[in-house]
Amino acid sequence: MQAAAWKAFRVVLMSSGALVLLAALLFLAGNAWVLTQTQGRIERTLSQCGPEQVGIVFGTSHWTRSGVRNPHFDARMGAASKLIRLGRVRHLLLSGDNRTRFYNEPVTMWRELRERYVRDEDMTLDYAGFSTFDTLVRARDVFGVERAVLVTQAWHLPRALFIADALGLEAVGCAARTARVDGQWRLQAREWAARVATLGDLYLWGREPYFLGPFEPLEIAPPVWELPYGRERE
Questions:
Q1: Is 89 helix (H, G, I), strand (E, B) or coil?
Q2: What CATH number is attached to the domain comprising 131?
Q3: In a designed cystine with 200, which of 35, 167, 177, 204 is the match (CB 3.0 to 4.6 A)?
Q4: What whole-number distance in Å separates Cα of residue 23 and Cα of residue 193?
Q5: Which part of the chain is the DUF218 domain (predicted)?
Q6: What value, to the nearest 5°, has the Cα angle with vertex 165 and ends 164 and 170?
Q7: What is the reported pTM?
Q8: Does residue 7 lie in a domain region?
Q9: What is the pLDDT of residues 106-126, one digit of tens each?
């Protein structure tokens, strides 16, 4: 009796181990697929990004949980304002989370970019960019974007570009350079998991955006080549 129980236990243990190994292999393969499909379209020098009509800026919190300014937010705003100033993009789609009246990523980005001398007419706010997927679906279906520069951190760009490809958007990535910060490994680990989840969203369970709304194509204003530089923060 004990021998039979031990044999059954060994079978269960081996099966569990095989499943864990299979899951690990699928996890690594999913990440490798996303990375190999997108790495060649990520530019790390702002002056080489674009040129394109539209830059999509992905929202993030202005502050960290510890109560200090979020360096990832600052890097995205710095990159977006410089792309406008250099003429590498003509219009910014600021897409972020606005689930409650107490938290509004698009308006925070808009205020910050105004301080960096980006004109109001060069910005459109998307209040329903609750996720990377939602931002890109809405860019295509609500704002009529067909081609864009995606502005975010380098570790986020592979997933964003992969989603854009699946949606039929012609996109390139522009990496907002951020100094390494404490706990960044947690962000990157979550991003590895998010890439695998994205494959499920796109190819298994047919994810839909949280909210779409009416068609509102972007209005791109004529460029102005001379902007004040005085107080702009790099």
A1: strand
A2: 3.40.50.620
A3: 204
A4: 12
A5: 56-193
A6: 75
A7: 0.87
A8: no
A9: 999 999 999 999 999 999 999
